[in-house]
Structures are given as structure tokens and as C-alpha cells.
Amino acid sequence: MPWLPAPTSGEQEEAVCKIVTRWSGTWIASAPKLRCVALPRSAAGALRWHGPAIARVGIKDDTEVALGYAACAGRAERANPRDRDLLRRIGADMVRDLAQFLEDAVGPGLVARNDDPADACFQMVAQDDAWGLALAVRPDALVRLRQAAAGRKRKSVFGKMSDSLIDLPIRLGCHLGAATLTADQVASLSVGDLIVLDHLLDAALPLLVARDRSAGGSVQVHADDGTIAMAIVESPSFLQKAS
Amino acid sequence: MSETDAFLIEGPRASRSVVDNLPVTVEALLGVATVKVGDLRRLSSGDCFTLDTLLGDPVELRLNGVTIASGELVTVGDNFGIRIKAVTQA
Questions:
Q1: What is the pLDDT of residues A86-121, one digit of tens each?
Q2: CB-based contacts of A99: which residues, under 8 Å, 6+ apart?
């Protein structure tokens, strides 16, 4: 199991705070100013992951009611058992929604509700300290959270692709090379002329996806028995990012 | 006197020569193999595709994305080359 490095940069806390502030704005009419406190390794104990999730969110039971109370803008009686139960459920719903909010930012299936906030590495607290959320995020999730907070969230081109697109044909080819001629030479091109291209025979050639080489990737071309085959040397860059 | 100087001094009379000598890059494309988008997603190093193009089939020569000629793929020393077989009429 990987061990989490202690957060070192204020930028990380800021990015997480930005995301959670957006979320709290959807739940709490007068959203409190949130502070994000990076818990030192000693406070969080051994930061260890117990599952595949890369981000976890949790809240202590006794602050769940306070969170619900904040959502209701104080229009409830915390001493009343029925109100208290309702506030607890609202608080729990809010935490579930925060998990969804984070999932939208870091990717599907990668966020879990944390039942044991003791292994969190971030503590989100409202200004009045009435409630706090514990967040545990892996470094790769932090990068995605920073991107989402900066509005530069990038999704895989296949992320939301419907099944109907999966069967669409797409043309692959390769870029054999280029040659620089003068305009006059191009204008007077005729049958029989020989143009020498800049790519070498044994070099990996740029892959064309739908006649476009911007997808990245490279291939090696082989001729065998009158047919030409191309073997992928490096897959397109968008697939590397998606994986 | 360079061609540009000539253009500046002699004006339109020299323009033909300047334009004629402008460098342009032509590129050659080989293919295609048709795959499904779903298969593209699983594309990885080592995968092999047989192209629809056979040895000896014409290869496109493009200028600014427009096919201007087609020709036979040949080898010239260590490089690929194209022997022009047809020129696209403008």
C-alpha cells in the first residue's frame, strides 16, 4: 500500500479549498469562508490507504449535525431529537454530494466516503469551527483537483463517449515524410519526377488518425508479400493520457 | 543582388521570380487502415495493421493538406521517395 507524502505546498490546500467552497455554495445559502488545514503526518497518524479510491471524504458523527444545521441556516432546534435526526441526515447527504463533487473533478469511481477520517490528510473547517470535513487525497488526485479548480479540467475523449460511437470507423495511416521544393518546382511537377522524402526507411513514422498527425504516436512500416503493414511503436498521446 | 532586392528595386517585373522561388513543403501520406473507434481506444505498442494500400499503389503527395499528385513509393538510398505517376489537375 502506498504511503502518502505529507502535503508541502499551500497551493494544494488552496485547490482543495476552492473545490469544497464551490460545493458548499450549492448547499449553504450564506456559505461560510472555509479554511483548509493540512494535517501534519503526526496528527493524522500513519497515512495509509485502505482501498483503490484516490480521494476520500468523511466527517465525524458529532459534526454531521452541525453541517446540517449550517445548511438550514440555523432554522432548526438541535436539542430536539427529531430535528437532530433530520440535521444528521442532511449532513450525511451533503457529504455524499461532496464525494460526487470531487468525483466529477478527479474522475468516475475514484472517490469514496471515508468511514474513518483518522487517515485524512486535509481538514476543511468552517470559520466558526462548527463543522469540519476530513479529506484524504492521493497526489495524483491533487493534480486533478488543481486542474479542476483552475478550470482546466481535462477529460479523456472517451470519457463520455456513448456506445454508439464505439463502432464508428476511423482511418489510420502514416506520414511518410516531407520534402521542401520551390513553388516553381511544384508547379512544374510531372509524371516520372522523383521526390526524396526526409524520413529514413527504418525510422518510426508519425501515425495519422483521420489524416491528422496531431494525435501523436508513431508506427513502423513493413512490406510483406505485396502488402504493407504498420506496427504501432508508440500509441497516440490521448490514449496515454487517458490510461 | 538577391531576388528580394530585385523585387524591391524592379517591382512587379521581378515578382514572378520571387514567387517561383518560395520554398514550400510537400508531404506524403501512406494508408489507410480502417479501425473502429472502440479498437482505437485499445491501441497499444506492437499492434499491427495491414493497410488497404498495396505495394505499388499510388501514395498521396499533399501541399497544405490538398492532394497535388500521387506516385509510387520507392526507396532512395536510406530514404523513402515518391515517383510521380499522376498530377492532380487544378
A1: 888 888 888 888 888 888 888 877 777 765 544 446
A2: A57, A111, A112, A113
Residue of chain A whose alpha carbon sits nearest to that of B63: A186
Q: What share of chain B is helix, strand, coil (3-state, %, to 5)?
A: 25, 50, 25
Please state the φ and ψ torsions of residue A34, each to the nearest 5 degrees.
Answer: -95, 145
Q: Is B90 on the interface with A (CB under 8 A)?
A: no
Provide the CB-side half-sphere exposure for A125 (13 A, CA). Answer: 8
Q: Return all residues near B10 (Cβ < 8 A) that are at least 6 apart.
A: none
Among B24, B28, B59, the residue with its CB nearest the CB of A183 is B24
Task: Quote ipTM for the complex.
Answer: 0.75
Q: Provide CB contacts within 8 A for A154, sequence distance 6+.
A: A147, A241
Measured CA to CA in angstroms, residue A10 lies from A39, A94, A209 at distances of: 12, 26, 41
Q: Measure the CA–CA gap between A109 and A141, rounded to whole angstroms.
A: 12
* Pair A132, A68: CB distance under 8 Å: no
> What gap in Å lies between CA A234 and CA A91, rounded to an integer?
48
CB of A176 closer than 8 Å to CB of A199: yes
Please give the model's pTM, rounded to 2 decimal places: 0.46
